């Protein structure tokens, strides 16, 4: 599943090819993805200039004066900029043709992604209740500490709550908790301010590192043959159940927390 770093890398890869381009046409090969594609996408987008590509959480917004196309990659989606005459492949659902003889093509085998519309000056309901961006100054240990008081939910569940902070998925939550030395099972309300500061720092460092590494894969977004592979992670705990902890050497433990698989070290994480 594309996580926040993949989405941010997609944005950066698209930017030089898409920003400032005029949309010459929109081709929808199906009427819906996860949800129906609203008529505004095909009726309002053609003729508009794409002024910017923004990311909010794991959503991408193509901003025009007529409104913004709102995209989510879901479980399996990818966006690529291709020469306009590139043959269509299975699961290529949407083409947004650009003035530079290229096409922004959305492929999504499982169709958990979406393409929606946000009128100018409005906030789409999907974006309305989102918490702070993890790499912004609005996200820090003090905020986590304040928001967690009185919360008995496991800290891992708390950290993955999009109202608390956006874009910290299962992989990055597990990794950040390991780096901060916090057990994912611990009640969110029982963790000190100092430890939340370490956790916020870990989240920022991991995401920034992943985005930095993503820079090396940017060519995938313009190559017709390039597979949109997700980043290979140098994972410390995620997916390493039973393997030795990279800090203490003891076997890592696995359990479900909030219906999500979780792996951690019971010695290093308290
Ligand atoms: Zn350990």
Provide a descriptive summary of the structure in words:
The protein is α+β, with helices and mostly antiparallel strands and 270 residues long. It has 7 helices and 10 strands. It has helices spanning 4-18, 40-44, 125-128, 141-148, 155-159, 170-180, 193-214, and strands at 23-28, 52-56, 59-64, 67-72, 78-83, 92-98, 102-107, 114-118, 253-257, 260-264. The strands form 3 sheets. It has a 4-stranded antiparallel β-sheet with strand order 1-6-7-5, covered by helices on one side. Strands 2-3-4-8 form a 4-stranded antiparallel β-sheet. It has a two-stranded antiparallel ribbon with strand order 9-10. A hairpin with a 3-residue loop joins β6 and β7 (102-107).
Outline of the structure:
This protein has helices spanning 4-18, 40-44, 125-128, 141-148, 155-159, 170-180, 193-214, and strands spanning 23-28, 52-56, 59-64, 67-72, 78-83, 92-98, 102-107, 114-118, 253-257, 260-264. With 270 residues, the protein is α+β, with helices and mostly antiparallel strands.
In total, the number of strands is 10
How far the N terminus sits from the C terminus, by CA atoms, comes to 29 Å
Which strand order does the major sheet show?
A: 1-6-7-5
Structural class: alpha+beta
Order of helices and strands: HEHEEEEEEEHHHHHEE
Shape: elongated
Quaternary assembly: single chain
Mean pLDDT, to the nearest integer, reads 92
Our count of helices gives 7
Low-confidence stretches: 222-230
Q: Specify the biggest β-sheet.
A: 4 strands, antiparallel
Strand proportion, as a percent range, falls in 15-25%
